[in-house]
Design brief:
This protein is mainly alpha-helical and 446 residues long. The protein has one domain. 68% of the residues lie in helices and 0% in strands. α1 runs antiparallel to α2, α2 packs parallel to α15 and α3 packs parallel to α13. The two termini are 43 Å apart. One of its GO terms (molecular function) is C4-dicarboxylate transmembrane transporter activity. Keywords: Cell inner membrane, Cell membrane, Membrane, Transmembrane, Transmembrane helix, Transport. InterPro entries: Anaer_Dcu_memb_transpt (IPR004668).
C-alpha cells in the first residue's frame, strides 16, 4: 500500500512542478484529498509556521524593494562585477552570493544576469561559465541567509537554542567553499567563444557582430532617496533576528505557562515569533521612515511572488508530512539501519525530494523532521541543508530559464538529453563539496 501512496505523492509533485506557480500547492491539496478519502490517512497539522515565515520575510524584502533598497544593492554589485571583467567566473558568483545572502531572496539575481552575460561576452569569456555558477550561487545563499525563508524554517524545525547561528556557522563557509569548487569546475567548461561553431555562425550577422563588439556600458540606475536608509533598517533587522535566535536570553521571557504557537512552555519566544515580529516591524519602519507607500509594497514583484510560495508550501508540505506520519514506522524500518550506518545517504534523499519541490523551505519542512525521526543528529542535518538546493537538477526553474534566454551567444543551454544542461556540473559539484565541508566543520566545531 505504501508504494501506491508514494506513487500518488510523486505524481502530484511532478504534475505541479510541470505546471509551475501555485500548481504545485494545488496538486498537493489534491493529493491530500486522495490520501484522506481513499487511504483514510489522518491529516497532520498544516505548515503554518513556515507559511508565516515566508509571509513575514518576503513582505519585508518587498518593502526594501519598493523603497529602492534592492536597486541600490544591485548597483553596488554591478560595479564590483564590471571592475574586474577577466575574473568574472569567480567575481560574479561570489558577488551574487553575498547579495542574495544579505537580501534573503534568490530572485535578485535576475537584475545581475544581463550584466554577467554582457561583461563575459565583451571579454570573450564563454558566458555559460559565469552564468551557470552565478545562478547556483543565488540558490545556495538561501541555505545560510538569516533573512531567507528556508534558513528561518530550518531554524524553527530544529528547535534547539542558537539554531540560526549554528546554521550560519556551518552552511555559510561550507557553501562558499562549495561555490569555489563549483567555479573551478566550470572554469574551462565548453569551447572558447572563438572556437564555438554556434557563436561563430552568429557572428556572421553584421548586427550581431556589432552588438558583440560594442563596449559594455554601465546601467544607469535611479536610486531612490530612501534606498540607503531602507538597506540600513533591513541590516539591523538581520542582526536582531540572528541575535534573538542565537542568544535567547536577550529576548524578553514570558511567564511559564501553557505553550502555544508563539511561546514555549518555559516562557521563551519561539523562533517563528521572533522572525515575524522583527521582520514585519522592519517593514513598517521602512515604510514610515522612507515614506514608501503601502501600495508600492503590494505592487513589488517580490510581494506578488509570495502567494505562489505560500500556496506551494501549504499544499505540498502538508501532503508530504501526512504521508510521512502515516508511514512513519515503515519508513523507519526501511531507512533506519541505512542512515545509522551511512548518514550521508539521507542527503541523497533530501536532494531527490528537492529536485521535485523547487523550494528549499518546502524540502526542509518535508524531510528534516524525518531525519530527526531517524535519529540523525542536528549538526548532521545542518550539514545536509545545502542538499535542498537541488532544484537546478531539472532545468525548469525561472532563474535557470532566465540565464539561458539572456545569453545571446547561445552557450548557456539545455542539452539534447535535458539533464545535460549548463547548470548540472556547477550544481552537483557545489552541492557535494558543501555537504562534505559541512560535515567536516561539524567535527572541527566539536
Amino acid at each position: 500500500m505504501i508504494w501506491l501512496q508514494l506513487a500518488v505523492l510523486v505524481i502530484m509533485i511532478l504534475i505541479g512542478s510541470r505546471l509551475k506557480g501555485i500548481a504545485l500547492g494545488l496538486m498537493g491539496i489534491l493529493g491530500m484529498f486522495i490520501f484522506v478519502q481513499v487511504f483514510r490517512m489522518r491529516p497532520t497539522a498544516p505548515p503554518g509556521d513556515v507559511m508565516l515565515i515566508i509571509i513575514s520575510i518576503v513582505t519585508t524584502a518587498a518593502a526594501l524593494q519598493a523603497a529602492g533598497g534592492l536597486d541600490y544593492l544591485v548597483y553596488l554589485a554591478e560595479k564590483i562585477i564590471r571592475k574586474q571583467p577577466k575574473g568574472i567566473i569567480f567575481i560574479a558568483p561570489f558577488t551574487v552570493y553575498a547579495l542574495c545572502l544579505f537580501a534573503g531572496t534568490a530572485h535578485i539575481v535576475y537584475s545581475l544576469l544581463p550584466v554577467i552575460s554582457e561583461v563575459s561576452t565583451n571579454t570573450r569569456i564563454r558566458p555559460e561559465r559565469p552564468l551557470s555558477i552565478s545562478v547556483i550561487a543565488s540558490q545556495f545563499a538561501m541555505t545560510g541567509s538569516p533573512m531567507s525563508a528556508a534558513t528561518a524554517a530550518m531554524a524553527a524545525l530544529l528547535m534547539v537554542p542558537g539554531a540560526s547561528l549554528m546554521i550560519m556557522k556551518v552552511c555559510i563557509p561550507a557553501c562558499i567553499i562549495g561555490l569555489l569548487a563549483g567555479a573551478l569546475s566550470v572554469y574551462k567548461m565548453g569551447k572558447e567563444l572563438k572556437d564555438d561553431p554556434v557563436f561563430q555562425e552568429k557572428m556572421k550577422d553584421p548586427e550581431f557582430e556589432k552588438a558583440m563588439t560594442a563596449a559594455a556600458a554601465e546601467t544607469k540606475r535611479v536610486i531612490k532617496p530612501g534606498a540607503k536608509t531602507a538597506v540600513l533598517i533591513f541590516a539591523i533587522a538581520i542582526a536582531m533576528v540572528v541575535l534573538g535566535g542565537s542568544f535567547p536570553h536577550l529576548v524578553p521571557n514570558m511567564a511559564e505557562g501553557v505553550p502555544n504557537f508563539s511561546v514555549n512552555a518555559d516562557g521563551t519566544l519561539k523562533m517563528v515569533t521572533i522572525i515575524e515580529i522583527v521582520t514585519l516591524s522592519a517593514a513598517a519602519l521602512i515604510m514610515l521612515i522612507t515614506k514608501t507607500s503601502a501600495a508600492d509594497i503590494v505592487k513589488a514583484s517580490l510581494f506578488n511572488s509570495m502567494a505562489s510560495a505560500v500556496i506551494s508550501v501549504f499544499g505540498v508540505v502538508w501532503m508530504s508530512s501526512t504521508f510521512m506520519a502515516h508511514n512513519e514506522e515503515v519508513i523507519k524500518q526501511a531507512m533506519g539501519g541505512l542512515t545509522a550506518n551511512y548518514p550521508w545517504t539521507f542527503a541523497i534523499a533530501v536532494f531527490l525530494m528537492g529536485t521535485l519541490m523547487f523550494s528549499q523551505s518546502a524540502t526542509a519542512k518535508a524531510m528534516m523532521p524525518l531525519g530527526m525521526t531517524l535519529g540523525l543528529p542536528v549538526p548532521v542535518l545542518i550539514a545536509m541543508f545545502p542538499a535542498t538546493n537541488s532544484y537546478f537538477f531539472l532545468p525548469g526553474y525561472p532563474t535557470l530559464v532566465a540565464a539561458i534566454n539572456i545569453d545571446r551567444t547561445g552557450s548557456t543551454k539545455i542539452g539534447k538529453y535535458v539533464l545535460n544542461h549548463s547548470f548540472m556540473r556547477a550544481g552537483l559539484v557545489t552541492t557535494t563539496v558543501s555537504i562534505v565541508v559541512g560535515l567536516l566543520l561539524n567535527r572541527l566545531y566539536g
